[in-house]
Prior knowledge:
Elements: E1 2-10, E2 18-22, E3 30-35, E4 49-72, E5 75-94, E6 99-100, H1 101-107, E7 118-122, E8 134-136, H2 138-154, E9 169-187, E10 190-210, E11 215-238, E12 241-252, E13 263-266, E14 273-276, E15 284-297, E16 301-313, E17 316-322, E18 339-345, E19 349-361, E20 372-388, E21 394-397, E22 405-415, E23 418-427, E24 430-434, E25 440-443, E26 446-456, E27 461-468, E28 475-479, E29 485-489, E30 494-501
Parallel strand pairs: 10-13, 14-18
Antiparallel strand pairs: 1-4, 2-3, 4-5, 4-6, 5-9, 7-8, 9-10, 10-11, 11-12, 12-15, 13-14, 15-16, 16-19, 17-18, 19-20, 20-21, 20-22, 22-23, 23-26, 24-25, 25-28, 26-27, 27-30, 28-29
Amino acid sequence: MNTTYLPLIMASSTSVPDMTYDLSNPNFPIFTVNSGTFSQTALSTTGTILIPLKQRTESKSYTVKFDMAKELGDLTLSAGMLYADRDIDGNTLSSSKYVYLGAYAAALGKTFNINDYVTNTRWDTDFPLGLTLNYVNNQAMRSDAESLLRALEAAGLYDPSTDIGKTSLYQQQERTLAGYIKGKLVRGPLTVIGGLRIENYQMENSGSLYDGSTYTPATYSSSKTDFFPSLNIKYEAAHDIVVRLAGQRGISRPAYGAVRVGASISDTATPGTISGGNPLLKPEYTWGVDTSFEWYLPGNGMVSVAGFYRWVDNVLYDAQATVNSDFYNTGDVDRSGYLFSGTYNGRSGKLYGVEFNALKQFDFLPGALSGLGVQGNLTLLDGDFKAPDSNGVVQTYDFQGMSKTIVNASLFYEKYGLSARVSYQWRTHWLDTLGGLGSGEYRQGYGNLDVSLRYTLTDNLTLYADLANLTNETYVAYADTPEHPTEVERIGSRYLFGLRFNF
């Protein structure tokens, strides 16, 4: 079971000043109050709301497996079967209502004033905000809000079971029946492993469609038999050189929340809109080829180069586009031309890249210096996929989450029970979400510097320290171009110290 509870407490200002924005630095929009007043301690009391964001997923499953193998000299043959039965009951992270804390407190003869939690401690930030803010005592505020909710529940004025809307719920049953055969041949420097997996996957999917006034139960069933061949070849060209070649077919199924039946429908807009799950989603399939060349250096070290190519079908991506399906029709309402916001299947795509790796411990150095070493890799990626936009015109898009260049570099020390590593990662910008008109939200590239320390006191006790984001990076999201920032944040450096006990 997996659960998340994230209560958001929000309040508006009792006065709205006249402001202007300075966008000369696109990463830091600065606003200036021209007239009127703005005070952090003049927040609305009656308008303070709590949004009880909750997520829960409960999975019950059982699996039956059978495997057997037979050695025939250099050849080993294997075969097996699997049956898996899983029931999933949960919801996406969401809330169906606002809890007006001030008004609810008044109903019990109590008060809830968000201004009481604004401290005198200034928020220390080097962001050029154009104003100053003080810290809020969030722990006390949340504790008091939850005490109020418990009192409301006891008085019959609040029902936590209604926090989650029906359209975010999903009830799904997965049934998987699979069988495989595999052969492994080892002959001198050559190792060949090949196999075939045949799988039948069934899903029963149920939920509710909501049109603003009525919840309509809906179900969707799917069944598909697939095959997944694979071939892996390893050749030891010399005692220190290994060449690998592999090919396979793979699958990536959509998340439970993305494929759920539940959806909210608005018939008032033109065209109408739908947001929620897409039970018509197909799995994402790939055919792939991988190859690598590995050179093992004397002592503890290796230099390698690896490349891959993937042909991708049914690419999963988030967007807004025309439904083109009658699944969301209820009564006599045709919603096939509505705009749906959620996860879609794109068309064909390709993803390819090359990775260079190097690892070397300087074990040739004398004494304590022999524990020093370096490790690094450079990954170059590219690829795209095709999908129709909201007008039905096929466009070419980048894969979401793909940076075209990723660099990792580490300096480490391993000796005398001490393990220390200083690591730096840098990645270029990437597409985060895709809009319905070909636009998208991107994340700017950034670099992170981290330090990891481990010291073994005994076989059972280890001291550790993890120091993350020591460069205090600024993370920026933007729409289409960096001149249109949508989010600028710093999460600060993080320090974690502890003692680990193993037994």
